Amino acid sequence: AAPKGVWCPTCGLAALAPTTQRDVLIALAKQSILSKLHLEDRPNITHPTSRGALLTALRRMRAQRTDTSLSLGIPGDDGHVPRLRPGMGAQEYEILSFAESGSSTSRSVRLHFHFTRELAGSTEILQATLYLFWTVPGPGTYPVTIRLLQPDPTGLNVTGGSETRLEVQRDGWATLDVGRAVQSLFIQGGQRLTVELEVAEDWGSRLLAIHNDSHWPFVAAQARARTPHRVQRR
Amino acid sequence: GIDCSGDSRMCCRKEFFVDFKEIGWEDWIIQPEGYHMNYCAGLCPLHMAGIPGLAASFHTAVLNLIKANNAEAAVDSCCVPTQRRPLSLLYYDRDSNIVKTDIPDMIVDACGCT
């Protein structure tokens, strides 16, 4: 707070000792960033994503993206993070959620994708894509069923959602639009999307295996902060 | 706008860089490495109302208004940001998801007198 009689806040700052000034400014910077990210405190990162998985995901998304309006650029060497869509109104987000392995059998595997409460409650989903990497056991066509499961009202179990059948013929990345599933998850206030992959034969373990960091399944979502319905007019 | 230098007392932009590593935030903010939390400081005596950083014509208009009205009645002119840009962040949220967003108007590029 500026000392008495000084009419502008930053003039008060000039009256402080340099170290105190620095502490005040750093505290202001922290408070400003956390409040704009709707975070009460800085997150404690329990299991950071490997750099390989992050860079692969960012590259896949950029390769996948046709419209350049929202580009989650790979941070440049100069540390500059390319901007989303310049001049946008409501704040926009790109969210990368990496799979957490769930239960699995020789013919099926479950993957869980978490979304935080802050984002789930205050944003609308513009687009969401599931990225999967297949490794086929040999020549041929391998039918795969993908189910998107939602938490039931108790939040304890998962109930059947939409189902998609794919024919996998070679190694490589595949994408699936999961925008509707993630949007309904957010509307229900849920935080976890479960994806179940099922294959016909017991060669599934190879097809569904997650071999290394760089081929880790992930969901890339584009979201926009909900604007309050009533806009104050000045 | 004018960047503050030495002991300039007039309205100017003070640069202040917050290095995320220095404050122990480099583990959850992936990019960038810091935040240019520049701010505006300095005096705006009446003859400076409307400059720098704003169109000269605006300055003339303001001065004429002050002359036309009783100068004593004129309110103070303040040193405020006249150009700002967003802060683009790539960070981990509480579930270790990775989020990219632009926080609007976070970086002050120029200051001027209202």
Features:
heterodimer, A: 234 residues, alpha+beta, 6-stranded antiparallel β-sheet, 4-stranded antiparallel β-sheet, 6 helices, disordered C terminus, B: 114 residues, mainly beta, 3-stranded antiparallel β-sheet, two-stranded antiparallel ribbon, 1 helix
What features would you describe in this structure?
Chain A is of the alpha+beta class and 234 residues long. Chain A has 6 helices and 10 strands, in the order αααβββαβββββαβαβ. In chain A, a hairpin with a 6-residue loop joins β5 (142-151) and β6. The longest helix of chain A has 19 residues, at 18-36. The model of chain A is unreliable at 66-80, 84-88 and 230-234 (pLDDT under 50). Chain B is mainly β. In chain B, a hairpin with a 5-residue loop joins β6 and β7. The longest helix of chain B has 13 residues, at 56-68. Chain B is elongated, with a radius of gyration of 19 Å. The mean pLDDT of chain B is 83. The chains are: A alpha+beta (234), B mainly beta (114). The interface between A and B is large, with 49 and 41 residues.
Write the SSE topology.
The complex is a heterodimer of chains A (234) and B (114).
Chain A: H1 9-14, H2 18-36, H3 51-64, E1 92-98, E2 100-104, E3 108-114, H4 117-122, E4 123-134, E5 142-151, E6 158-159, E7 163-168, E8 172-177, H5 179-187, E9 192-199, H6 204-208, E10 218-225
Antiparallel strand pairs in A: 1-10, 2-3, 3-9, 4-8, 4-10, 5-6, 5-7, 5-9
Chain B: E1 12-14, E2 17-19, E3 29-31, E4 34-36, E5 39-41, H1 56-68, E6 79-92, E7 98-113
Antiparallel strand pairs in B: 1-5, 2-4, 3-6, 6-7
- Helical segment count of chain B: 1
Number of beta-strand segments of chain A: 10
Mean pLDDT of chain A: 77
Rounded Rg of chain B: 19 Å
Task: Offer a quick outline of the entry.
With about 230 residues, chain A is α+β, with helices and mostly antiparallel strands.
